[in-house]
């Protein structure tokens, strides 16, 4: 019996397994994998994980089952695996919008579930994952899931009712931040900066600002004030951004992200 089985090894599945192995949350000989693209599994097999020939083989031979397929693939996958589930199985689902109710309707009322929303920076050890324990999964089982993600960054327990809303905060937000950075970088290149220099300056400022927000003990208002010299450049920039409806653009993005999660879970 393997401790961790994984079905679906794509953009996020592979880095989750990589991180869990290198962070020693689970040992490679305790991991069995099944994905549609065998070449993506190869680096994981080289370090000692096992490959299954089917979804059923994974389910039949693991305790924790990480589902990292797209939400749209679950309607086909869940009925396939249901006959092979045992009461001790713990399903760890990272599928955006897929609630515990959806999973229990498909797999059975007593299914042990952990919902998790990770993000891709976990591939560099800077992930932030939000997790929720669903009864009857035990605290020890939840702790295992927390470790799987926590070794690749940080892991936070959140209420299950907020799993869709958290996607805008961590799951999808890296892409929002990349897009904002792209806008800054494109403008910087028009000013004459080479791309690499601009990226170092912009991203370095983002990292510095993030540290200030998390560790300086100063409120967001006071941090903003400290940058805004009276009559200076920052207040001019912020005023123009506010006049161009920055708040509305970002809030609309968050709302569309959350709305899509609810649609995917129907
Ligand atoms: N990408 C991200 O940043 C994040 C993604 N998520 C969630 O993670 C999940 C995966 O997303 P992502 O990695 O981006 O998607 P990908 O499409 O990159 O990966 C999913 C993989 O699962 C494969 N797959 C589908 N059905 C099966 C099956 N029955 N057996 C084995 N493999 C299967 C797909 O193969 P095929 O190519 O044939 O479809 C694909 O390779 C989604 O539910 C998403 O909501 C959560 C947080 C962040
Ligand atoms: O875009 C998506 O649907 C997934 C979920 C969060 C990040 N990527």
TrEMBL record:
A Pfam cross-reference name: P5CR_dimer
Every Pyrroline-5-carboxylate reductase catalytic N-terminal domain range: 4-97
Catalytic activity: L-proline + NAD(+) = (S)-1-pyrroline-5-carboxylate + NADH + 2 H(+); L-proline + NADP(+) = (S)-1-pyrroline-5-carboxylate + NADPH + 2 H(+)
Keyword set, alphabetical order: Amino-acid biosynthesis, Cytoplasm, NADP, Oxidoreductase, Proline biosynthesis
Source organism superkingdom: Bacteria
Keyword NADP set for record: yes
Subcellular location(s) per record: Cytoplasm
Domain Pyrroline-5-carboxylate reductase dimerisation as annotated: residue spans: 161-264
EC nos: 1.5.1.2
Family as reported in the entry's similarity comment: Belongs to the pyrroline-5-carboxylate reductase family.
The protein's role, per its UniProt record: Catalyzes the reduction of 1-pyrroline-5-carboxylate (PCA) to L-proline.
Annotated protein name in UniProt: Pyrroline-5-carboxylate reductase
């Amino acid at each position: 019996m393997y401790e961790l089985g994984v079905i679906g090894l794509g953009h996020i599945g592979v880095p989750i397994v990589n991180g869990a192995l290198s962070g020693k949350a689970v040992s490679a000989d305790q991991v069995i994998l099944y994905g549609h693209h065998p070449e993506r599994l190869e680096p994981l097999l080289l370090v000692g994980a096992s490959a299954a020939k089917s979804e059923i083989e994974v389910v039949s031979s693991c305790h924790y089952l990480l589902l990292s397929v797209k939400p749209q693939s679950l309607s086909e996958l869940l009925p396939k695996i249901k006959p092979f589930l045992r009461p001790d199985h713990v399903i760890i689902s990272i599928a955006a919008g897929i609630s515990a109710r959806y999973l229990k309707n498909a797999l059975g009322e007593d299914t042990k579930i952990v919902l998790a929303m990770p993000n891709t920076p976990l591939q560099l050890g800077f992930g932030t994952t939000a997790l929720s324990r669903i009864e009857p999964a035990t605290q020890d089982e939840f702790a295992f899931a927390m470790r799987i993600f926590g070794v690749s960054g940080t892991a936070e327990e959140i209420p299950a009712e907020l799993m869709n809303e958290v996607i805008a905060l961590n799951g999808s937000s890296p892409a929002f931040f990349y897009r904002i950075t792209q806008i800054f970088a494109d403008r910087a290149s028009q000013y004459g900066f080479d791309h690499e220099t601009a990226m170092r300056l912009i991203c370095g400022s983002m990292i510095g600002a993030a540290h200030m927000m998390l560790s300086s003990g100063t409120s967001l208002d006071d941090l903003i004030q400290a940058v805004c010299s009276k009559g200076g450049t920052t207040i001019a920039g912020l005023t123009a951004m506010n006049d161009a409806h920055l708040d509305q653009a970002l809030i609309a993005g968050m709302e569309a992200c959350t709305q899509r999660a609810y649609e995917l879970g129907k």
